[in-house]
Amino acid sequence: MIVDTIINNSGRMFIPSTLREMLGDSFVIAKCISKRSDKAYLKPCLRIYSTEQWQEFCDNVERKNPTKTIDTLLRFMAFRHTQLDKLGRIYISSELCRYAKLKTDLTVVECEGFFEVWSEEQLYEWEMQQPLTYILQTS
Q: How far apart are CA 62 and CA 59, in angstroms?
């Protein structure tokens, strides 16, 4: 599922009702760290996890890296726990907005177990930089 939404000047992003049903009342938003060919890399977007999905992500990282501390990764991801306000919006910190270059128009992409939040410009630029084989493998 791909959904267009907006963010206002104060960092409030509207969450469409279809996404609210999938996420629940509280969730986590963080920088996007992805993995390809056993290498981790940053993508210029944010990820939104339900509370349960976030815990699964953390447990999985700890299982795969038992000798390394998860605290370092979590600090790097600049994650924030958040909840919907009465208008169906969430607050995204200025640090996360700067990282993902979020402006007014956003695209939310459903992935396996989380959602990615992209500025429209960043998503287009990122897609243009990917090899066609990667795009075909992930679609």
A: 5
Tell me which residue of 136, 48, 61 sits closest to 92, measured CA to CA.
48
Which range has the worst mean pLDDT, 2-16, 27-41, 60-74?
A: 60-74
Place of tokens 């056993």: 38
Helix orientation angle between 70-77 and 51-64, rounded to the nearest 10 degrees? 130
Cα–Cα distance measured from residue 17 to residue 108, given in angstroms and rounded to the nearest whole number:
13
| Cα dihedral 8, 78, 33, 61 sign | negative
Contact call for residues 100 and 44 (beta carbons, < 8 A): yes
- CATH number for the domain harbouring residue 53: 3.40.1550.20
* CA dist 117 → 6, 15, 50, 69, 106 (Å): 10, 11, 14, 27, 7
Domain of 32 in residue numbering reads as 2-138
Q: What is d(CA 18, CA 29) in angstroms, rounded to the nearest whole number?
A: 18
Distance of CA 137 to the CA centre of its chain: 20
Domain tally, the chain = 1
Return the pLDDT at 47.
92
